[in-house]
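Let's sit down with a protein and look at its sequence and fold side by side. We need material for that, and I hope you will provide a protein of your own picking. Once you have written the record down, we can walk along the chain together.

***
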Amino acid sequence: MVGCVARLVPTCVWRATPELILALDERFGPPHDSYVNGSQVWLRDDGPAGITLEWRLHPVGGYERPPALTTYEVFEAVADALGTGTEPAAPLDQLWDGLEAFAAYGDETEPATLAASAGGALGRPPDAAGLVDHEPIAEEWERADRGSSIIDALLVQLSQTGESK
């Protein structure tokens, strides 16, 4: 990788909890897109100065969709179950590790400014914020055949830069 320069991206991370899923459902509604790999995505103009943020609920390593649900039903069914106190189709820790928010189109922003805007939009401050290099995380996830945790990798990078909470 001679000549390859890391591209550091301001990002915010929240660990997956029932409260986080309920906040996403209440404030953002259904995801704009859902993926077979378990990712749930919202694109919203609630970043600093109105920039578009990509909010990505990352799946756990080795994610398997609950068999009773389609890819597009998982988030809403789980959020509904959590909101009504019923048993979800699968435990939360078998679905998602956490949420990441970053500028969707590479707009410039500072991590602290992003954390303030994103935390305000979601109604809860991030667990960590700072600069990350997505490339090695994506490469490891592919090498592990989607068996690694993207959230854990993000949190490791954030802790190494001293910007994690």
About this structure: Strands lie at 8-15, 33-34, 40-44, 53-59, 96-103, 128-133. The first strand starts at residue 8 and ends at 15.
